[in-house]
TrEMBL record:
MF (Gene Ontology): C-22 sterol desaturase (NADPH) activity; heme binding; iron ion binding; monooxygenase activity
Cofactor(s), names only, from the UniProt record: heme
EC number: 1.14.19.41
GO biological process, one term: sterol metabolic process
UniProtKB keywords: Heme, Iron, Membrane, Metal-binding, Monooxygenase, Oxidoreductase, Transmembrane, Transmembrane helix
Protein name, entry field: sterol 22-desaturase
Localization terms from the record: Membrane
Keyword check for Protein biosynthesis: no
Catalytic activity from the UniProt record: 5-dehydroepisterol + NADPH + O2 + H(+) = ergosta-5,7,22,24(28)-tetraen-3beta-ol + NADP(+) + 2 H2O
PROSITE patterns reported in the protein's UniProt record: CYTOCHROME_P450 (PS00086)
Protein family: Belongs to the cytochrome P450 family.
């Protein structure tokens, strides 16, 4: 041991000098990329500001937005876990990023470490013609007929969970219940039923729920891909989820070959797909792209990811905002009462849903006021001229902020005001470019109508069937990331039934 120490001792000054040199070069590289853009003048070596981001994401992004706003340039920079980042607050600059998603400019990544979690071949990362072709194939999933099928399923599941919430609240009384966990389960079951409902056995559903929760936890962890870490567990969970969804795609193909009526999203998708597969087989050609069970499993997981957490966020903020605006609740109840009665024991039809103009305005305002996915990560595939005076360096992670855009342009944007989306004011049209909750450009959310239907149905049924009271505590409505934004206290509420009885709803 002594001889080893004697050998290493002369090398320590050289090692220390090398480490210092690497740290110095890292700082120089950061400052060279930063230039005069607002951001921290110095950053911790290697990790940068990753620790503050993980500890308090809301505060981290709040600081970035403040720097971007106060400087007047509309964006700011930082350094996270070896990655130079650019945060964009200005709406027009965000549109510039969304409009340039291509191989030689910006690549959408959805999550800073998403490729390690989702794999390289997911819908999120597709570009060019391949992406256009897949979007074309997805289009039948969101026709009026398909959406009508989904709204029926959505209502049945919403009712099932509202009954459960009322029961849990009664059992917990006088203590409120944390709605985040219940809303998460509601949306996961909704996604399962709408996307692949008939093809998941009850036993599989429970395992599916567990694996999705493991994945959710991993989203908030640093990308340390070692056995036993939350990130590695999340990767393994994704593999299992994709395998289950791929099996559902195969079962749907068999059903659609028999030309049976579609009952869920994958069925609407497979109607044309099986015809293409049969035509290719008859011609002795290989299977068309985007049609293998594994690929379909990946794409279904993308849908699940997009629908699950964003919708949970919106449901929670809807409850919180409705509680703090009783006049809005009264208007929703009055409108729904004039269109649909729980005592009728009938589902809300697509036509009735379209008549609920005010309730739709409330849903859109919830999404504007608290955009679920606050930032949409991209990676610069090449140097990208953001402004006349600043070029984003290649490899930088770029974060256009849908959240910040929602508070630009609109009249009194800090005020929750559903009337802004009325036919009289039409702020959704006047300030359309600022409404970026569903993204923009070629990767704009293809399922936004489905997502809004889910929120409108929830608000209509929640207000009509239940009385509710938010438990107010210090900081309860501060923003927390889970991974989309939610009230900090998990939305603690007390719930009771307000209708004489719950309706009996079933598929016709």
């Amino acid at each position: 041991m002594n001889s080893l120490l004697a050998f290493l001792s002369p090398l320590l000054p050289f090692a220390a000098s090398l480490v210092f040199l690497l740290l110095f070069l890292e700082q120089i590289s950061y400052l060279k990329k930063k230039r005069s853009v607002p951001g921290p003048p110095l950053v911790l070596p290697f990790v940068g500001n990753a620790i503050p981001l993980v500890r308090n994401p809301a505060r981290f992004w709040e600081i970035q937005a403040s720097l971007a706003k106060s400087s007047g340039v509309g964006f700011s920079v930082n350094y996270i876990a070896g990655n130079f980042i650019v945060f964009i607050r200005d709406t027009e600059l965000s549109h510039k990023i969304f409009a340039n998603v291509r191989s030689d400019a910006m690549n959408l990544v959805g999550h800073p470490f998403g490729k390690k979690l989702f794999g390289e071949d997911n819908l999120i990362y597709m570009l060019g013609q391949k992406h256009k072709d897949l979007r074309r194939r997805i289009a039948p999933n969101f026709t009026p007929k398909a959406l009508s099928t989904y709204t029926a399923l959505q209502q049945i599941i919403i009712l099932k969970h509202l009954k459960l919430w009322e029961q849990k609240s009664s059992e917990s009384s006088p203590k409120p219940i944390p709605l985040r966990y219940f809303a998460r389960d509601l949306n996961l079951e909704t996604s399962q039923m709408v996307f692949v409902g008939p093809y998941l056995a009850e036993k599989v559903r429970e395992k599916f729920r567990v694996d999705y929760n493991i994945f959710n936890v991993g989203l908030m962890k640093l990308p340390i891909d070692l056995p036993g870490t939350g990130f590695r567990n999340a990767k393994l969970a994704v593999d299992r989820l994709v395998e289950v969804l791929a099996d559902c795609a195969e079962k749907s193909k068999r059903k659609m070959k028999k030309e049976e009526e579609p009952t869920c999203l994958i069925d609407f998708w497979m109607q044309d797909t099986v015809k293409e597969l049969e035509a290719a087989a008859a011609a002795g050609e290989p299977e068309p792209v985007h049609t293998s069970n594994f690929e379909l499993g990946l794409y279904l997981f993308d849908f699940l990811f997009a629908a699950q957490d964003a919708s949970t966020s919106s449901l929670l903020w809807a409850v919180s905002l409705l509680d703090s605006h009783p006049e809005v609740v009264d208007k929703v109840r009055e409108e729904v009462k004039s269109i649909w009665s729980p005592e009728s024991d009938t589902l809300i039809s697509s036509e009735q849903l379209s008549e609920m103009k005010y309730t739709q305005a409330v849903a859109r305002e919830v999404v504007r006021y608290r955009a679920p996915a606050t930032v949409v990560p991209h990676v610069a595939a090449a140097e990208f001229p953001l402004t006349d005076s600043y070029t984003i360096p290649k490899g930088a992670i770029v974060f256009p902020s849908a959240y910040e855009s929602s508070f630009q342009g609109f009249v009194e944007p800090e005020r929750f005001d559903p009337e802004r989306f009325s036919e009289e004011r039409q702020e959704d049209r006047i300030f359309k470019r600022n409404f970026l909750a569903f993204g923009a450009g070629s990767h704009q959310c293809v399922g936004q109508r489905y997502a809004l239907n889910q929120l409108v149905l929830f608000i209509a049924m929640f207000c009509t069937l239940l009385d509710f009271k938010r438990h107010i505590s210090d900081g309860c409505d501060e923003i927390a990331f889970n991974p989309t934004i939610c009230p900090k206290d998990d939305c603690m509420v007390s719930i009771s039934r307000r209708c004489p009885r719950f309706p009996n709803l079933s598929l016709q």
